[in-house]
Amino acid sequence: MHMNPIKIMIPYSFGGLEKLTTLNISYLQLERIDVGTFLGIGSNVLYLDASHNRLTHLEPGSFQGIEHSLEVLQLFGNHMVFVTLDVFSALGRLKNFHADSERYCLLLPDRVRCHFKAEYDIPCCRMVNDLIIVHFP
Fold first, then answer.
1. How many CB atoms lie within 10 A of CB 121?
2. Where are the extended beta strands (E) located within 61-128?
3. Side-chain half-sphere of 126: how many Cα atoms within 13 Å?
4. C-alpha to C-alpha distance for 39 and 36, rounded to whole angstroms
5. What is the Cα 43 distance to its own chain's centre?
6. What is the pLDDT of residues 16-55, one digit of tens each?
C-alpha cells in the first residue's frame, strides 16, 4: 500500500488480516481515517505508520480495532488541525508516539514516550486545565 494515492480509509479496510503486526499506510495522501477503519484486523497490530499523509484531524474511534494492541504510532508529516483527547486515551498499550510537534504531548498519557523531529526527546506531559481539544495552527 505504501506510496499509493488513497485518500480515505473506510471501516473494515483491513478486515481478515488477523496476523498482521505492522501496518505502513504512510505516503498515501490520506485525508482521513474513518471510525472503524481497523475493525476486523485482529489484535496483533503493534506498529502503525500513518506518517506523511494529508490527515487534518483524528476523532474518537479512529484507531478502533487496534486500540488494545498498538504500541508504536507514527504521525510525522501530516496537516493536523485538531485532535481530541479521546483519540489517544483508548490506546491502552501505546508506548511510543512519533510526531512533528511536542503539542501532542498534552494529549498523551504519562506512560507514553513522545518522539519529535526536533533534536530532543521528552517524556509526555499531563493534561492541564481539563484540555479536551488541542488546536494546531
1. 10
2. 72-74, 82-84, 96-99, 113-116
3. 3
4. 5
5. 16
6. 898 999 999 999 999 989 899 999 998 899 999 999 999 9
Q: Distance of CA 105 to CAs 3, 78, 85, 88, 116, Å?
A: 28, 16, 11, 11, 10
Contact status, residue 12 vs residue 36, Cβ threshold 8 Å: yes
Q: How many other β-carbons are positioned within 10 Å of the β-carbon of residue 97?
A: 22
The residue to which cell 505492522 is assigned: 22
> Which domains, and CATH codes, for the chain?
1-137 (3.80.10.10)
CA atoms of 74 and 51, how far apart (whole Å): 6
Model pTM score: 0.78
Residue whose entry in the numeric block shows the C-alpha cell 494546531: 136
